[in-house]
Amino acid sequence: MDEKKRQEQKWSELEAYIEDELKKTRQRARMADSFDEMEEIVAEVGQRLQQAILAASVEQRQPGRRMVCKECGAWMENKGLTGRKLKTSLGEVEMERERWACPVCGASIFPPGPKVED
Fold it and tell me: Is the dihedral angle over the CA atoms 55, 58, 56, 63 positive or is it negative?
């Protein structure tokens, strides 16, 4: 599957996830015993949705065709998609990104990172 189709599929999956979460949240909020409980439910769901949207946003910004090593200036090699967890202000976010490695000095990055070269 090409990158554009993969990204479109990811966004479609995200949209379905958001719709499902909203339906579940509506049901949970109806059963809540208090405003405070509703607030906790909404905050919990909101954080999960923010994390999912952030991961999808990062995944769509793949670097492109070529990258230059920040350490030695050599062209880096794309090592394919790699899963990664990042700690953010929204909590831990899981995503898939391309990993790039330098065949000269061994430096490795998981973009976003240095400027993309065409």
Answer: negative
What is the bridge-based pairing of β-strands 66-67 and 116-117?
antiparallel
Q: Is the peptide bond before 112 cis (omega within 30 degrees of 0)?
A: yes
Crossing angle of helices 35-59 and 3-31, in 10° steps, is 180
Give phi and psi for 77, each to the nearest 5: -110, 135
Domain layout of the chain by residue ranges: 1-60, 64-118
Q: Which two tokens stand for residue 44?
A: 């919990």
DSSP string, 7-54: HHHHHHHHHHHHHHHHHHHHHHHHH-SSHHHHHHHHHHHHHHHHHHHH
- pTM reported for the whole predicted model: 0.62
Tell which phi-psi region holds residue 90, choosing left (phi > 0), alpha (psi between -120 and 50) or beta. alpha
Instruction: Of 54, 44, 113, give the one whose Cα is nearest residue 89.
Output: 54
Walk along the chain (118 residues) in steps of 10 and give the mean pLDDT of each run. 77 92 94 94 92 81 75 92 82 84 92 47
